[in-house]
Design goal:
- The chain has 356 residues and is an alpha+beta fold.
- It folds into two domains: 103 residues, Phosphorylase Kinase, domain 1; 236 residues, Aminoglycoside phosphotransferase (APH), C-terminal lobe (Aminoglycoside 3'-phosphotransferase, Chain: A, domain 2).
- Helices cover 43% and strands 13% of the residues.
- The protein is built from eleven helices and nine strands.
- It has a five-stranded antiparallel β-sheet. Strands 6-9 form a two-stranded antiparallel ribbon. Strands 7-8 form a two-stranded antiparallel ribbon.
- Strand 7 and strand 8 form a beta hairpin.
- It starts with 6 loop residues before the first helix and ends in a 12-residue tail after the last helix.
Length: 356
């Protein structure tokens, strides 16, 4: 059961941010995510308050990434730290009205409920221009990160390197196979499978990592008027140049609205955008793109079993058929992964090669 909304603390925070006359009229919980964060929309009145703000509730007041490190009572909340850097370079992130991490919450600018995904689902004709805008924004993020690195921004001290990529493949095996079937793989078989998956790690071994959102999907981009807004950037780090693009275009739902032809057009737009900015991509980008997409899909499969079976959060397994379809398509496009595919097939039949 979720902890109760800290209404008294939020009311005090609203007055601190917008004046003593400001008050909360209605507090409405918003759809959560798979993290330790919760969100509440606050309708406000009085003082200098805007009509609404969003409270990010940091359950346990843990100012950390879910996957990149342990708790640090003295650390700044990554959302605030990374958001400051992005805002300083005019990227469209929500403003922070008040940061009270010691009390377990932030008050943020409300960017609405219309995600990029919901916008194109409601109006499929908008898919091409909106996803093109998302690609252009991603190019801008990478260019800014390359030209303006900042050691005070935590994103530049975290690397999505080979070590982390291998850990996430182990997570897939542990939960996407072992938790799924309720038994451990024999040690030799487990080692053989992880060795066969080694090509997936190759893009993450590169020294040429770039600033990445790390969760750059149509659910984390909002459409506000004609403008895209970026949320959930607290896990930003340095990652392969193809990683964010692969997340955007190979997410579990993207294939239902982004056709293969549009996907190719958007990849070409990204490549051209980098080149026009004076940062041409190195050879092998197409393979990096597919490998990054596969790495993400396998990680998600493991995570969804972990969330539903281990953490007892219902509903995640219902998303898996779409994720399996993504992984299946990417595996078919990567001949070097044929041995891994054969080893996975007895345990993950959704990954088996087609038979003639």
């Amino acid at each position: 059961m979720a902890a109760p909304i800290p209404n008294e603390a939020l009311a005090h925070g609203v007055r601190a941010a917008f004046g003593s006359a400001a008050r909360i009229v209605v507090a409405t919980p918003l759809a959560g995510d798979a993290s330790n964060r919760r969100y509440v929309r606050l309708a406000l009145s009085g003082g200098t308050a805007p009509p609404t703000v969003v409270a990010m509730l940091l359950d346990g007041a843990r100012p950390i990434s879910d996957e990149l490190g342990g708790p640090d009572a003295n650390a700044e909340v990554p959302f605030v730290n990374v958001g400051r850097y992005l805002a300083a370079h005019e990227l469209p992130v929500p403003g922070v009205y008040l940061a009270r991490s010691s009390e377990g919450f932030l008050l943020l600018e409300d960017v609405g409920d219309t995600t990029l995904w919901r916008a194109v689902e409601a109006a499929p004709a908008r898919a091409a221009p909106l996803f093109a805008a998302a690609v252009d924004l991603l190019v801008e993020l990478q260019v800014i990160g390359t030209r303006h690195p900042d050691t005070t921004c935590v994103a530049f001290s975290q690397r999505f390197d080979g070590r982390l990529a291998r850990l996430e493949l182990e997570h897939f095996v542990e939960h996407g196979i072992e938790t799924r079937h309720g038994r451990k793989l024999p040690g030799r078989e487990r080692d053989e499978l992880l060795a066969a998956l080694a090509p997936v790690v190759a893009p993450f071994e590169s020294a040429a990592l770039v600033l990445a959102h790390r969760d750059y999907m149509a659910w984390n981009l909002h459409v506000q008027g004609e403008r895209l807004r970026v949320i959930d950037f607290q896990d930003a780090l340095l990652a392969p140049d193809a990683f964010d693009l692969a997340q955007l275009l190979t997410d579990r739902t993207t294939g239902t609205i982004v056709s293969p032809a549009l996907e190719e057009t958007l990849i070409a737009r990204f490549v051209a955008g980098r080149a026009a900015a004076g940062l041409p991509l190195t050879e092998g980008f197409d393979d990096r793109y597919r490998l990054c997409g596969l790495q993400h899909a396998l990680k998600v499969i493991g995570r969804f079993y972990f969330l539903e079976v281990v953490k007892k959060k219902p509903g995640y397994l219902a998303y898996l058929p779409a994720v399996y379809a993504v992984a299946h398509r990417l595996l078919a496009s990567l001949p070097a992964l044929a041995p891994a595919r054969a080893l996975m097939a007895p345990h993950v039949p959704e990954h088996a090669a087609e038979t003639s």
